[in-house]
Amino acid sequence: MADLTLDGTNLTKAGATEKSDSLKQVFPESYWADRFNRAGLKNRYELTGPSEAMEVQSKVKTLQETLSSFRWPADGFGLRDARLVVNDPALDNKISASITPKDDVQRYYRFYSRGFTGESPTLLDSGIYKFDMMLGADKSSLEVELTKGMDNNAVLEAVRDAVNDSTLPVQARIIKQNVPGANLDDLLGTGSALAFSVNTAYVATEENRGDSTQNLDAANELSFSDSSGHLISHLKLDETQKPIGPAIEARYDLSGLVAGSSSNYLSKAFDANGTTTLASGEHSIGYTIGAETGTITFRVADGDSWETVLGRIEDSAAGASSKITAEVVDAKLVSPVYTGDDYYLIDGKSVSISAVSPKMGERLTLELASGLEVLGLNATAHPGADSVMVINGTTEVRAPSEFALDNGRVLVDLEQNFGDTLPLRVASGVEEMKKNVGLVTDAYNDLRKTILPSEELFREGFADLWRDPVVENRVDLSWMGFREAEKDKEIWFDSDKFYAALIADPDKVQKLLDDEDGLFTKWQEVNDQVIENKVSSYLIPETSLPGPWLPEPSPRTELELEKKRELVDTFDETFNFDFDTVTDDTGRLFSKKG
Questions:
Q1: SS3 state at 371
Q2: Which contiguous run of DSSP H or E holds residue 444?
Q3: Alpha-carbon gap, residue 543 to 556, rounded angstroms
Q4: Quick check: helix, strand or coil at residue 158?
Q5: Contacts of 245 by beta carbon, 8 Å cutoff, 6+ apart
Q6: pLDDT at 3
Q7: Taking CA atoms, which of 108, 266, 513, 562 is between 20 and 30 Å from 549?
């Protein structure tokens, strides 16, 4: 730079004078700007903080929903052939649907008879015909009486009724069709035919078999054999075949007309320790369920408590029949204490009597002997009902409410009535996972886009609650198609790379996403915690945002607390004066410390 001349005197630029930074550290140049910035932040916090928290909460819930839609196929087939069920969102809480694991697949229809001309006279002689029906190790010995002049329809009805009245969970129905396969794809007989079925809710599976060592196929095998006469051979029963391969990719249009339930009776509530008002002696409750009748007999002694009496009813019902059960349950009853304003409720006990695994049309009815009206069982009777669903335009009835589609490879349990026709899809597991992973990453990116512009309104590290699991496993996640973008660290998802990783090493992909320490599991844990605490609790405390003329704000983070301690130490080190002896020999201020 050229020299300057002032009043004839040459001025030359000298080097910068070195100055101590200690005062800068104590009184930083940004001090007043920071005070005004904090005031602006306080104004923004008051205007937008609650709405920002609500928006973030909404994005967290969206991420939660997309994460719950991601499922790993578990049907026992290779990943290329695996299938997943996709519900219409409107079906949530109305049905539960699943793909049956390969080894657990069982047909609903097990046997078909040959077709008969229903109105033609039977070729069987009149008399009593006996046959055995076995399901696994359980056997029912049944008999049918045929009379002279019966037609084929009457014979089929007699066999149907005998099977349906049996204790085994086997159902029989008569199906009439003019051409093969009109009503059931693999029912080839025309005219009237018997179809024998076992509801898939009653079959043995790997999950419910318990300690049984019996082969699953043997445990679920249905068979018939003549023991007197040749009725079964006359029917020419053909066993249906289990399906081969995975579930078919298809769409099912469903309408849930009746969500069925078992018959149930619940007594009034009684003070468990109170003395029963029933007369001492033996009492009985008659029951009927299907073709079975019997009694629940129990005794009452003087001084018995209600809890004792209800317990005896429970025990007696359990031993009376395998078709009914009873249980003493907790209940509430009105306290005899009356304050003048209201009654109080106290703990009590009731007994519940229910049908066990009822077949279609089976209802439990109770007949109480004189003197048992005090139990109030009939007053709370729930009659029960079969489940009815329309599937692709065909009305189906089941008891209980489990419907087997695609020859048992897809199960739908009707939980709630719905009149609208709603779709359910069976899709390729790989394609569905690719789609759902894309939706999850989109939801994660939407969450970051919502948090980052307002990050200063939230406690330090809030956005990193979700990002940390990505950073911790960056290399492996990149291998299967996850990569962070440069600016806002959003995730770029490469579906082709994900597909290649899925086919090359599905176990590794599952571990990275769905395992205990997987990315989606970690995100789910963070979501659960944030939703439980509410996003608003992660906003910075309002005390950290005073106006420009108010005292210094309280620290917001551990880092600010540490800086405040360092600032106090700086003041202590720099301005520790002894004002009793303030000067040295030259008259300058000096510090005696150190």
A1: coil
A2: helix 429-451
A3: 9
A4: helix
A5: 77, 81
A6: 46
A7: 562
| DSSP E strands, 440-551 | 482-484, 491-493
C-alpha of 246 from chain center:
24
Which H helix or E strand runs over 236? none
pLDDT at residue 206, as a whole number: 79
Q: Say what the pTM is.
A: 0.76
Task: Please check whether residue 327 is in contact with residue 301, taking contact to mean a CB–CB distance below 8 angstroms.
Answer: no
What is the dihedral sign for C-alpha 576, 579, 585, 588? positive
Round to whole Å and give the CA distance between 184 and 439.
39
Q: What is the pLDDT of residues 379-397, one digit of tens each?
A: 778 889 999 999 999 999 9
In this prediction, the residues of the chain whose per-residue pLDDT falls under 70 are 1-49, 336-343, 542-594
The region, left, alpha or beta by phi > 0 then psi within -120 to 50, assigned to residue 336 is alpha
**What whole-number distance in Å separates Cα of residue 150 and Cα of residue 335?**
64
Distance, CA of 424 to CA of 253 (rounded, Å): 6
**Cβ neighbours of 236 (radius 10 Å):** 12
Give every strand in the sheet of 127-135, ordered side by side: 138-146, 127-135, 222-228
Amino acid at 409: R
Q: Tell me how long the chain is.
A: 594
- DSSP 8-state symbol, 125: P
Picking from 477, 480, 534, the residue whose alpha carbon sits closest to that of residue 505 is 480
Nearest to 502 by CA among 432, 564, 554: 432
Output phi, psi for 511, to 5 deg: -65, -40
Sign of CA dihedral 83, 84, 87, 89: negative
Cα(first)–Cα(last) distance of the chain, in Å?
44
SS3 383: coil
Question: How far apart are alpha carbons 43 and 545 in whole angstroms?
Answer: 9
pLDDT, tens only, 117-176: 999 999 999 999 999 999 999 999 999 999 999 999 999 999 999 999 998 999 999 999
* Cβ atoms of residues 352 and 268 within 8 Å: no
> Is-contact 99 73, C-beta < 8 A?
yes
